[in-house]
Design a protein that fits this description.
Length: 798
């Protein structure tokens, strides 16, 4: 044996399974003349490599450059071993360990190479809807357990044909160990069934000889005839219709129970999106990214010479798809099936396959049962979906993207924490629910689960928590939940903690928001920030409804140093659904008259007005709130934009849309809040009397409501900046974090960021997780972990 031979063991963690990493290692080792082996295991990848020192050095440098497109390395450790007699470098079968875990890749859009093959009439996968390779395709939604091997995915029921098996076993082929690898001869199939051709409980079977082109033709005929089709995708079912057919959209809204909430549009490419939306270079990158999220783009402004735009029906389409909104959600096809569909009908309206507020349909039987009344046809396939995963949504913010919903393409990729932490299961909030499970330095935030308001969603939450705990081999040390004493998510957390026999730790809503931002940016544990937490509803430590909060906070504690002045919210949820009630309550709290010339007053029926007046006078069922979200709702009703809502934040979205039209044409100092300095035992209070009075005066004077909306946004930005400057003078803290659902408002966030940065602040905004309650679970998990360190025997911590 050559005495100059050196042998090393390399341990790697990160996103390195299911991404072509082992063939990458095999090729590099072969090129360097090394012997040894590479193997997947439950922690990551292990390599033993043997050769001369300079060849090993070259081999190791390869891990710093030229990785497979989807691979990332979190850690790399080496150890010396004695050299052995060996002649080849091999790829070993995966090894398993009952308590070790490794990262699981998210589902990734179909790659260019696969698309070229699918469009090649001479290729055996021509127009095959399930073409994939190690660089693309489903991952998370088909994985049942780790390591990522075909036998542990929903592809296990499809036995590969000889040609697919040959690709699968060839390290030089890009389909080497591509677990979903298949072709028309051996893989999944699609088929179409008209809704009137099956009964609720009818068996659903594919014909292995169905021609995909004929299936697409049936889909096309249904959709172009004004029909709605349930399409089985990668992470669940979509409901699809012709996006330019206003009658079909109206029918879909009626059947789905989705009155005004925006839908998303799928188009073939970014150039098509430009026909009806504003698309700059950054937005194009988001649309074309491998994650393929829904991107919220500004609607294109109609010019006098836009005859083509108007004749294509885009103006009516945008009004029907996203009424009252200056943005429209757009996505590009991300699965091979989508490419075939969009080739036939473009643009397509694509929305989640469910009734409003229910989980997305996952199985064919479930789709027939739950979606049957909504659709005119079904496009099925027979590759099982193990985990439902909805489309992700992002909104451009400057040169980056603001996550609105973190799901397909991103989940379950972990957020990296600054330190190793105990394993906590945090269940998030009631709205836009996600959960988070921490393990070491990894925080696994789930895909979007939905609004926890019904048994179906609670069931989905339970199934997914169980799956994550099993998938990542995690033994939980604690469960974390919101502070609210009677929330459904809190009750779920109580039961989960009892089942797991671990402490339940409750975390205040806005503290969780702030710490999620701290954790995302990997700040030091003890580093405090000034957190501006603006949202609709969060249970406060005093029992009030918080939502306009300023906190000095780090991972271990917080101080509430300022907040919006409380005003009564009559009927709680009743006022949330009817912003005119919130507006009238705000006027009453400020001693301002209910003038009939104000839209919120004239909209309210006289009888309801008398009852509301009595309710406010007696303080019966009135909840004190500092909610910034409710303030935005009240202003929207005050100026006549929206008096009743059919989905969360509708009034605020329409307020932002109007304001954006004239934001640079108004007096930025026209409206002002008053800031009452803090006393020894009370926080600084921000009062809105003068602002509301000024708005009322302008409304009555007939001032353009766009100008009023814009001046209100400037006032909010100025107030937040003033409060933060005041607190910096007291504490010296110069880092400001913007979190909570209100900061989905890009107009406000942009105005405020400019003010704060001009004043010398370092401004943190969300870039990996949403500012809304979809990011809440991360903060809960981190706070609970530190509190568990302090007192592991406490069952309840606030």
């Amino acid at each position: 044996m050559n005495q100059h031979l050196i042998r090393i063991r390399i341990r790697l963690t990160g996103r390195i399974q299911g991404v072509g990493f082992r063939p990458f290692v095999w090729n590099r080792a072969s090129d360097a003349g090394l012997t040894g082996w590479v193997q997947n295991d439950s922690r990551g990848v292990t390599i033993e490599a043997q050769g001369e020192r300079h060849n090993l050095d070259t081999f190791l440098r390869g891990f710093q450059q030229g990785l497979p497109p989807l691979a990332t390395i979190d850690s790399l450790e080496t150890a010396d071993l004695p050299a052995i007699e060996e002649s080849h470098f091999t790829i070993r079968d995966s090894a398993t360990s009952p308590h070790a875990s490794t990262a699981v890749m998210a589902d990734i859009s179909v790659c260019v190479d696969c698309l070229e093959e699918m469009q090649d009439a001479h290729n055996r996968r021509h127009r095959y809807p399930f073409i994939n390779c190690t660089n693309c395709g489903p991952r998370f939604t088909i994985v049942e357990s780790i390591p990522y091997d075909r036998a542990l995915t929903t592809m296990k029921s499809f036995e590969m044909c000889d040609r697919c098996r040959e690709e699968y076993n060839d390290p030089s082929n890009r389909r080497f160990h591509a677990q979903p690898n298949a072709c028309p001869e051996c893989g999944p199939q699609i088929w179409f069934v008209a809704a009137d051709e099956l009964t609720r409980d009818a068996p659903i079977r594919a014909s292995k000889h169905d021609d995909p082109s004929r299936v697409i033709e049936s889909f096309t005929a249904c959709v172009l005839g004004g029909g709605i089709v349930a399409v089985k995708g990668i992470g669940g079912f979509h409901l699809a219709c012709d996006a330019t057919n206003v009658d079909a959209i109206r029918k879909l809204r009626e059947r789905k129970g989705r009155i005004d909430k925006p839908f998303a549009i799928m188009v073939a490419d970014s150039e098509h999106a430009k026909r009806f939306a504003e698309v700059n270079s950054g937005e194009r990158r988001l649309l074309e990214s491998k994650e393929r999220p829904i991107v919220l783009l500004q609607k294109r402004k109609l010019n006098a010479d836009d005859a083509e735009y108007d004749s294509a029906g885009y103006s009516d389409m945008l009004d029907a798809v996203a009424p009252g909104n200056h943005c429209v959600g757009v996505m590009l096809p991300y699965s091979p099936l989508h490419h075939l569909l969009i080739e036939a009908v473009c643009p397509l309206l694509m929305t989640s396959g469910n009734l409003s507020d229910e989980p997305i349909a996952r199985t064919n039987d479930e789709a027939v049962r739950r979606l049957g009344p909504l659709v005119d046809g079904f496009l099925f396939h027979d590759r099982d979906i193990h985990v439902v995963c909805d489309d992700s949504v992002v909104r451009p913010l400057g040169v980056s993207a603001l996550p609105i919903r973190r799901s397909r393409g991103f989940a379950p990729i972990p957020i990296r924490l600054s330190q190793n932490r105990p394993s906590v299961v945090a269940v998030g909030g009631e709205m836009k629910a996600t959960f988070c499970i921490t393990q070491g330095q990894n925080a696994y935030i789930s895909q979007h689960i939905g609004d926890v308001g019904n048994l179906e969603t609670l069931g989905a939450l339970q199934r997914n928590v169980d799956h994550y705990l099993q998938l990542f081999r995690i033994d939980a040390d604690a469960v974390a939940a919101d502070l609210h004493p009677s929330s459904l998510s809190g009750q779920f957390a109580e039961n989960l903690a009892k089942t797991l026999r671990v402490p339940l730790i409750r975390v205040q809503h806005h503290v969780a928001h702030a710490v999620s931002l701290i954790a995302e940016h990997q700040l030091d544990t003890d580093q405090p920030i000034l957190a501006c937490c603006f949202d609709g509803t969060g249970y406060g430590t005093d029992g009030a409804i918080w939502g306009g909060e300023f906190l000095t906070v780090n991972c271990k504690g917080f101080e509430r140093f300022a907040h919006l002045q409380y005003f009564p919210l009559p009927g709680g949820d009743a006022s949330i659904r009817r912003p005119y009630r919130t507006a009238l309550a705000l006027l009453n709290a400020h001693g301002l008259p209910w003038d009939e010339r104000l839209p919120c007053v004239s909209f309210c029926p006289t009888g309801v007005r008398r009852l509301l007046e009595q309710q406010l006078l007696s303080n019966l069922n009135c909840f004190p709130t500092s909610s910034a979200g409710r303030l935005f709702d009240a202003v929207a009703s005050l100026i006549g934009i929206r008096h009743e809502v059919s989905f969360e934040a509708q009034a605020a979205i329409e307020l932002e849309s109007l304001a954006s039209e004239v934001i640079d044409q108004v007096d930025s100092g026209a409206y002002r809040f008053q800031i009452a300095e803090a006393s020894d035992h009370t926080a600084m209070q921000i009062r809105s009397h003068d602002l509301v009075e000024s708005i009322c005066r302008d409304v009555i004077a007939g001032v353009d409501r766009r100008r009023i909306a814009a001046q209100f946004h400037h006032a909010v930005a100025a107030m937040i900046s003033d409060v933060c400057q005041s607190e910096r003078g007291r504490t010296g803290i110069d880092v400001v974090g913007l979190t909570g659902g209100v900061f989905q408002n890009v107009l406000l966030t942009t105005l405020l960021t400019k003010r704060l940065e001009a004043s010398g602040f370092n401004v943190l905004v969300h870039q990996q997780i949403p500012p809304n309650d979809g990011g809440l679970s991360l903060g809960q998990a981190v706070v609970a972990g530190y509190r568990l360190d302090d007192d592991p025997n406490r069952v309840l911590l606030t």
